[in-house]
Design brief:
This protein is mainly α and 82 residues long. It contains three helices and no strands. It has a domain at 17-52. The chain is rod-shaped. The model has no long low-confidence stretch (mean pLDDT 80).
């Protein structure tokens, strides 16, 4: 058991019943709000990443398929005289 846990236990033992009940209610409220907070944080991270990937990149390296399409387009333009 950590020193912090030991301190908490000692202080709770010194409290009256009404104070213990308030502490318990506070802990219950905090724990019930925790998943919601984590969910919002995860949603914000997804939104941040979506914005990041939606922005055009200056350092974009074309893949093989993109290069083939570009070469095909240039060859067609050359054949058609454009």
């Amino acid at each position: 058991m950590s020193a912090l846990e030991q301190q908490l236990i000692e202080r709770i033992r010194q409290m009256d019943e009404k104070s213990k009940q308030r502490v318990l209610e506070f802990i219950d409220q905090d724990q019930s709000a925790q998943p919601k907070k984590q969910g919002y944080a995860a949603l914000e991270e997804v939104r941040r990443l979506a914005k990041l990937y939606a922005q055009p990149r200056q350092d974009h390296q074309p893949g093989a398929v993109e290069l083939i399409h570009e070469a095909r387009e240039e060859r067609l333009n050359a054949l058609l005289g454009d």
